[in-house]
Amino acid sequence: MDLKVENGCIKEDKGLGWGKSLPVQSVQEIVRNGYQSVPERYIQEIKDRPSSISSESLQASLQIPIIDFSLLAKGDEHETRKLDLACKEWGFFQIRNHGVQVKILQKMKAAMAAFFELPLMEKKKYAMGANDLEGYGQAYVVSEEQKLDWCDLVALKTLPLEQRNLNFWPLNLPGFKEAVEEYSIEVQKVAEEINANLSILMGMERDGLKRYQGELKQLMRMNYYPPCSSPDLVVGVSPHSDGGSLTVLLQDDDIIGLQIKHKGEWIPVKPIPNALVVNIGDAIEIMSNGVYKSIEHRAITNEKKARISAAAFAHVDDELEIGPLDSMVDDPHRPPMYKKIKYIDYIRQVLARKMDGKAHTDLVKIQT
Ligand code: OGA
Ligand code: NI
C-alpha cells in the first residue's frame, strides 16, 4: 500500500477504489458477548429512531407493486405498464415468478447464515481493507462521531467472474462459493431482463441500456442484522438510496425489516415468500432524467430474531459518464435535470458522506 505524508500525518493513498469505511466493532459480537443496554454509539437521535408501524403504513404496504416477472419476460404489455408505474411512483417493487429456483435462494440464504455464524477470528480473515469497501465489516462509517448501524456485512464483487477478489471469499466454508456464484448469475439475468424492459419504456431498443451502460458489474452486499433489545432506539441500516443502476434484494421470508420512504412516510416492505425485491438506483434515476425514482430506504431490527439479506447491486463501469439519456431529454419540455458525471466520481461522493437521509441524487441535480 502506498503511504503519503500530508499535513504532517501519514495518509493512505486513495488513488484506487470507491472509498473507505473506518473499522468498527462487530455488532453480532456485541450481542454474542451479552450487553446490559444498547451502546451509546448505536442509539439514534430521537428524530431518526424508528417509530412503530402505523396501520396506515401497513395499509400502504399492500400497495407496493408486485410484478409477475414471467409475464414481463414475455413482453406482456399490461405487466410492462405496471413496471413503468412501479418505477415512477414507488421506485420499489417485488417480483414473483422470477425464474430463480427456490433451491438456489435457499442455498444462498444458508451460505450467508453459515458465514455469519463463523467465529469472529475466522470472519476477520476477510476483513475490509483500508482503501475499499469489499470484505467483512461495516459500511459508511466516515467519522468517529457518527451513529452506527446495528448491522454487520460482507460485500463481495461477484460479477463479472474475473473481477472477483477471492481472497475476500471464505473458500473453506463448504458450499459458500458455489451458492453465491450460482445465485449471483441468476439474479443478474433478472436485472438484465428488467433493464431490457426499462430500455423499451425509455424509448430505446431492448438493448439500449446495455449498450449505454456496458456489461453490468455486480456487488453483493450481505447484511446481518442481529436482534436488538431496544429496536426502537437503533436502525439496521440508515436511510439511503442505492448508488448503482438496479438493486435486487433477497430478504428473509418471515421477518419484516426493510422500509421505504413513500410520500413522506416509512412503509414496510412485507416479505412475500421466495419473491425478490427490486429497486431503482441513482444511476437509473439520473439516466431516466428523474422519471424513475431512486427511493430512500432503511432497515429496522427486532428483539427476537437476526435478519439476513443479500443486496445485489448492478453497477455501471467506473469510467462511464452518466447523465440523462437523449431519449429522456426533450428541451424545452423536459430539459436535463441532472449534471453529467463520471460514475466513479459520483460513487465516491456518495460513499464519502454519512448517509444522511437525503437521496444522493441531490448531489447532481441541476437547481432550477
Ligand atoms: C442495502 C439495503 C436493505 C435490507 O443493503 O443497500 O438497503 O433490507 N438493505 O437489508
Ligand atoms: Ni439499499
TrEMBL record:
Pfam families, alphabetized: 2OG-FeII_Oxy, DIOX_N
GO MF, any single term: oxidoreductase activity
Fe2OG dioxygenase domain ranges (all copies): 216-316
Top-level taxon in the UniProt lineage: Eukaryota
PROSITE patterns: FE2OG_OXY
This protein's UniProt keywords: Iron, Metal-binding, Oxidoreductase
PANTHER family linked: OXOGLUTARATE/IRON-DEPENDENT DIOXYGENASE
UniProt similarity note: Belongs to the iron/ascorbate-dependent oxidoreductase family.
Protein's UniProt name: Fe2OG dioxygenase domain-containing protein
Organism: Gossypium aridum
